[in-house]
Amino acid sequence: MKYPKFALIIVLFILSFQLSCIEHSIVIQVNPGGDLQFNYSGKGDQSDLNDEDFPVPNGPDWLITRDYDPDERNHIYTAEKTFQNSGEFPINFFTADTIYPLSLIKHPLTVEHHNWFFKEVYHINWSFISRGVNQKYPGMASVLHEGESEPGWTAEAIEYLFMDCLLRADVGFNREPIIKAELNRWLTESVRSLPDTLIEMNYGSLKTDGLKLLKQFLDPDQFATVDSIFKQLEDESLITLGLIDDRFMVKIILPGELVDTNADTTFVDTLFWEFDVNEFHSADYQMTASSEIIYPARYKWLFGFLLIVVVAILLWIKKSKAA
């Protein structure tokens, strides 16, 4: 979901959580040669499918279809593509330049394929990288988990945005403690004492006041840097919040016989996972599996070849002695 202010976030994401859900269904098939077929299907509100929370695959090299289900009032978006190797797989599907890469969701995927003549081994690892909620704004975790906020979570989030912005801006060791003290004073007087509803309603003005306070100690040529850092941090928090109504269902198909996996369920060569943002808001969520194809006939070929070599050597030795 994309929102201009925290005030709209609280109302809209709780409503969307109650009334709708974005379903991301993903099928990954690893072929015997090691390349992979990626099939995506998203179902839900069109605006949510097009937002930056989980950017859907797009571009001229994807086979894309769009449909609408009038019975469920859902838009359906599908995309498929074959990757010759996992090194081509993007860390996310966002292709625009309106959001800094550090703010976006990241889901790197690797596939390893080894052909050792007697057997082929496959290993896949698809990870959804942690959003760092418990480290940055722990109060947000209850919102993502239960849809209900703990008192003070918005003040906690705003404090993180400004304090981390100050830390990353590298304003100098002599200025940083002064600005930090002023920000703490402003947060205590104007933010921490307010109820969450008032903070949400007045987020725009609070953001303006906080940035103005931070910049008053800086040189004008540092303003753009501060604005860029704050935008990156703000977008990151908004994207994390927006993931509250996203559900992921992943199916992975591997060649050969399954050796090891952390899948929720399995059926022959097909593995299934189902999860949401609560699985990766504070720790990486990994989907891993390994399989192998063993070629018993090749062991027989090797044994036959070695037997022929041994017999040939023995005959040569016998002939040499006879001579």
Task: Describe the structure in brief.
By secondary structure, this protein is of the alpha+beta class.
Describe the structure.
The protein is an alpha+beta fold and 323 residues long. It folds into 2 domains: 6-133 and 244-298, no CATH class; 149-240. Helix content is 39%, strand content 26%. It is built from 10 helices and 11 strands. The strands form 2 sheets. A 7-stranded mixed β-sheet has the order 3-4-2-1-7-10-9. A 4-stranded antiparallel β-sheet has the order 5-6-11-8, with no helix packed on it. Helix 5 packs antiparallel against helix 6, helix 5 runs antiparallel to helix 9 (223-242) and helix 6 runs antiparallel to helix 8. The protein is elongated. The model is unreliable at 1-19 (pLDDT under 50).
Unreliable spans are 1-19
Strand content: 25-35%
Number of strands: 11
Provide the gyration radius in Å: 28 Å
Our count of domains comes out at: 2
Largest sheet: 7 strands, mixed
Globular, elongated, flat, extended or rod-shaped: what is the shape? elongated
What's the overall average pLDDT, rounded? 89
Alpha-carbon distance between the termini? 89 Å
